[in-house]
């Protein structure tokens, strides 16, 4: 009874201490992560389901911490937001991804696309649209090659302002995509109101294929087709899921079955011969 209870509390306290220490350690080193050049982008190919060609890439942020190793974005992006460090990091991501796209347009293929993840905080910031415009002008790329991915949670706040900002970004030529579709704050209402080009169907629905649960997936695909949206299947890991998707109206897929997020060198090694 008592002894075990005390032990458990001590154990929990110790674990909370460790978590707290890790958080502090990460927060402290985040301040210099950019100037230390400890951040980089990994690029996951987006594959055309019909042709099996690489249509483009999604940029995914990576942080190589000196002492703690590779920190996943799901862990450090929320910390960066809390510590008000996120804006320079976000701006760096947009600049770096567009810089790489400009290089690949020269080296690999002139119609490759680049998808960039945009957090709600970033989307709402006053300088966001200016940064986008500035970067594509500087890198001399047409905005139609740049897709901005946002989750449905963007719809929670200020619907009217969100729609207006989306319309502005669309009018500049960028593509807009809803990420992790079907898992967040979902409302069919916003799908009509938002000027979006694409839905990225969350991995949970793709995993359903191998579990014999494709009802929701089929409904999402039908919905996307009715709304004339490009459909991307996320997190495709098995050949059975791939074969199923090939028979649907999904246009593109991403997943470990084809490639995980790659370094620039790995992209060159795998796709570099496409340049000749
Ligand atoms: P996301 O945008 O939904 O990205 C897809 C995540 O699924 C990536 O994890 C990717 O590595 C992983 N993934 C891709 N294919 C497969 C697969 O076949 N199986 C499995 N199990 N996983 C797969 P990652 O890179 O850890 O990123 C996690 C999340 O962090 C992203 O989810 C995105 O929400 C966020 N994130 C990443 N980079 C950025 C960024 O530059 N800015 C912002 N705001 N968020 C970012
Ligand atoms: Ca994404
Ligand atoms: Ca996603
Ligand atoms: Ca996600």
Can you characterise this structure?
The chain has helices at residues 2-33, 73-82, 86-107, 120-124, 128-139, 159-171, 188-193, 203-210, 215-226, 239-246, 264-271; strands spanning 39-48, 54-65, 69-71, 113-117, 146-151, 175-181, 198-201, 230-233, 252-253. It is an alpha/beta fold. An 8-stranded mixed beta barrel has the order 1-2-4-5-6-7-8-9, surrounded by 5 helices. The N and C termini lie far apart (73 Å). The protein binds ligand C2E and calcium ion (3 copies). Residues 58, 117, 149, 179 line the site of one calcium ion (CA). Ligand C2E binds at residues 44, 60-61, 72-74, 77, 93, 117, 119, 179-180, 235-237, 254-256, 261. This is Diguanylate cyclase. Residues 23-275 form the EAL domain. It comes from Exiguobacterium undae.
């Amino acid at each position: 009874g008592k002894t075990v209870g005390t032990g458990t509390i001590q154990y929990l306290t110790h674990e909370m201490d460790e978590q707290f220490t890790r958080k502090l350690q990460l927060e402290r080193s985040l301040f210099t992560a950019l100037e230390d050049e400890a951040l980089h982008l990994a690029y996951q190919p987006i594959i055309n389901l019909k042709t099996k060609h690489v249509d483009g890439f999604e940029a995914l942020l990576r942080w190589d911490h000196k002492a703690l190793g590779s920190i996943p974005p799901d862990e450090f992006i929320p910390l960066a937001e809390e510590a008000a460090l996120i804006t320079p990091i976000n701006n760096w991501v947009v600049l770096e991804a567009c810089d790489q796209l400009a290089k690949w347009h020269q080296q690999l293929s002139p119609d490759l696309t680049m998808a960039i993840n945009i957090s709600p905080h970033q989307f709402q910031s006053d300088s966001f649209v200016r940064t986008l415009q500035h970067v594509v002008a500087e890198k001399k790329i047409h905005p139609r090659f740049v897709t901005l991915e946002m989750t449905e949670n963007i719809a929670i706040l200020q619907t009217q302002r969100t729609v207006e900002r989306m319309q502005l970004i669309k009018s500049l030529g960028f593509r807009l995509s809803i990420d992790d579709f079907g898992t967040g704050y979902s409302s069919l209402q916003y799908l009509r109101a938002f000027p979006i080009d694409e839905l990225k169907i969350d991995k949970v629905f793709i995993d359903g294929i191998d579990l014999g649960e494709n009802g929701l997936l089929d409904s999402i695909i039908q919905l996307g087709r009715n709304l004339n949206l490009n459909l991307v299947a996320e997190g495709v890991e098995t050949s059975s899921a791939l074969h199923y998707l090939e028979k649907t109206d999904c246009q593109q897929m991403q997943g470990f079955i084809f490639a995980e997020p790659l370094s620039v060198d790995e992209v060159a090694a795998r796709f570099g011969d496409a340049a000749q």
